[in-house]
Each structure stands twice: as C-alpha cells, then as structure tokens.
Amino acid sequence: MESLEMGVATSQERAGALTRAWRRLMGLPKNSMAKVAELAKKAMKLGKDDPRRVTHSLKVGVALSLVSLIYYFQPLYNSFGVSAMWAVMTVVVVFEFTVGATLSKGLNRGLATLFAGALGVGAHHLASLSGKTGEPIMLGFLVFLQATGATFVRFFPRIKAKYDYGMLIFILTFALVSVSGFREDEILEFAHKRLSTVVIGGSACLIISVVVYPVWAGEDLHRHIAFNMEKLANFLEGFGDVYLRESEDGDSNRDKSLCRGYKSVLGTKSNEESLANFASWEPRHGRFGFRHPWKQYLKIGASIRQCAYRIEALDGYLTTKFHAPPQVQTKLKELCAEMSMEAARALRQLSSSHKAMTVPSSSTPHLENSRAAAKAVRLLLKTAFWKDATDVLAIVHAATVTSLLIDVVDCADKIAESVNELASLARFKTTEKVHAECDEVVLTVSTLETTVSPENGTPPVRRDPAPVV
Length: 469
What we know:
Layout: H1 2-49, H2 52-67, H3 69-72, H4 74-80, H5 85-94, H6 99-128, H7 131-153, H8 157-162, H9 164-180, H10 187-211, H11 217-244, H12 249-259, H13 269-279, H14 294-315, H15 329-356, H16 364-381, H17 385-388, H18 392-425, H19 431-441, E1 443-445, E2 466-468
Antiparallel strand pairs: 1-2
C-alpha cells in the first residue's frame, strides 16, 4: 500500500515538473519579447542621455570599413598580405571615445612599434653574428633583458599614467620581430609591413576622430568641473531653504530630491584624472591652448570632493529638525541660512564664470558675506547663553550642524582660490574685457543718401542710422 502511494506521489511530481516545463516553454516567446523590449528601451535611453555615443559607434564602424579595404582590393592585399590584419586590430584597439584618448593610444602604439621594430631588427642582426648555435641563446637573452627592463619601467607613476600602453606594445613588438626573425628570412620586410599597417590603422582613427564630430576630453573636463560646483550649490540652497527655513512639505520633498546630486561628486577622482591625462594629448581647439593647465583642474576637483564629503556629513541632519537652545535658536538659524545661501551663490557664480572662462570676480562679495556670517556664528557659540542651557542634546546638535556648515564655507573658499588660480594660469578674460569686446561688435551703419531720378517723383530719402550686430 505504501509503495503504491509512493508511486502515485512520484508520478504526480513528474507530471507537475512536466507541466511547469511546458508552461515555461510556452511563455518563452512572450518573455523573450519582453526582454527585447526592455533592452531596446535601455538602448534608447543610453543614446538619448549622450547622443555622442551613437556618433562614436558610427565612426568606429566607418574606420573599420575603410581599413578592411586592404583585404578587399587585390593590389593592396598583394602589398601587405596577412599583415593587413594589424591595421584592423589597430582600429579596434586605438579608437576611443575622445580625441585625446585616441591620440594617446595611437601615438603610443605607433612610436612603440617603430622603436621596438628597429631594436628587434638590431637584436636579430646582433644574434646572427654569434653563429647558428649561439643565435637562439642570444635572442632569448635579449628578449629576457628587454621584457624585464620595460616591465619594470612601467611601474614608474608618470610612465604608468601616460605611456603604459606604449610600453606594452613595445614589449610585444620587440618579441614578435626578434623571435620571428629566427625563422623568417625577410625580417626587414616583416617589420616594415607591421609598422606600415599600424600607421594606416592609427591614421584612420585619428583623422576620423578629429574631423568627424570630435569629442574633446578637455571640454568634457571643463564642463564636468562646472557641473560639480553647481551640484554643491544646489544642496546648499536646499539646505538653507528646506532645512533651516522649514519650507512646505511639497516643496521640501522636491528640493530634497534635487539636493542629492552632490553624491555623484564623491567618486569622480579617477574620471577626472583620466580626462586630464587625455586632454594633455589634445591639440589646440576652441578656447583651450596646447599647454592649457589641465593639472589645475585636478586641484579644483579635489577641493570640490572635500566639500562634498563635508556636505555628506551635513546631509545626515536633514532627516531631523534643527534643535538649539531657545535663547539662540532663531538667531543661529538665520546665520546658518545666510552662510548656506551665500556659499551657494558664490559656488554658482564660480561655476558660471568657469563655464564662460572669465575671472570669477562676482563671487567675491558672496564669499565675504558667508565668512562674515561664519564669524558671527563662532562668536554666538562662545556666548554665555550656552552655559544656562539645560538641553544637552540640543546643544550638541546645533554645535555639530554649525561646525559642519562652517567647514563647508571654508571648503568653498578653497574652491574659489583654486578657480582663481586657474583663471590666472589660463589667462581668463575679465568681465569688463568681455563686455568691451561685445560692445565693439555693435556697429552703427549710416545708409547713404539715395538720389532718385525726377521721373519717379520720389524725393531723396535719408534713413536714420541703424545699429547692426
């Protein structure tokens, strides 16, 4: 009886498993369509967020198609043979999103191939002088020596930052040329073909990257720094309006969601360093010269992140109501709100001046007001009202919030110093000079007196001067 029940249970489990498998199989087309639709939505959003990604994808496709012509046309294939594959590989590896990154990889790969090829030919010639028995031993020793030395050089910070890819190609090309020369008779032809195909692939990448809708790493870094300052200003404005002045709930929720933009500033160090590195490779473009002080942008970014870390600590107090001893609560809230709003205005002025590449003189009054409010807060914290207060938690809360806010104001001063230093190094224009140049563009053109023949009966007409831009 028990065995019969067990058999029935087993058959039911099998039937249930088959039913579930059949349902999954029948629902597979529907689930697949849903996943395809979701993937399409993500792809559309990715393209709308930054249309340059679509353009970059098309540029890579065009470059690969052009370089592939070496294989398709017989005369070109007869000249390069199988070595034409190096041109295709160069396009795949070298073509990057920004012009600076493409130039960095292209020049690294080209120069490394040239030097390594020349050294490889020299190593092959030197090893051939030692006879058939000593040639492989000498080649192995030279490959070991070159690989060891070049790999160690890659650990130097400056080499690691700018020439790491070139050192990697240097090791690879030297090994290929020198080792393959042991079996190849035409070692010079092999090195020449490899260098030529690398130059063809790299040139295609550089020309398309610079000519067709170029994406400059320097411009991205410049806008990135300005947007980060705006994000800090958004938080400080929200902190002064929402938290200290206790806005209405509807506006409060909207503003608090807007104020969370500072969180994206905290992890921007690696991105800024890579953009500054790629920007240093770029030629003169727009308002950015060849020796633009890109390292100063890293200094500004570091100051912005320090301010963002203070803001992150200050953000933890948005969930609770501001508490302070009743004797000083109103005055303290007013001073903290003034500090926050003035620092926000200063950062916003710094951001707009940075975008326009002008000297940020308009931020100075706001910074002075925020420093004056911070000084008043420090004096208020030292008054005798605190000694008579009985609510210890209110004292600790108020002292913590105000001290963090004072630190944020100090960080805003450091940001302003870094931006002013950049303006001096990059020779930003003053606001007065920009207005003067704009005024020179407006010209007053006086039309000549029109003389009409007596037949038309119209007297000569003289029009008033009209400003022309």
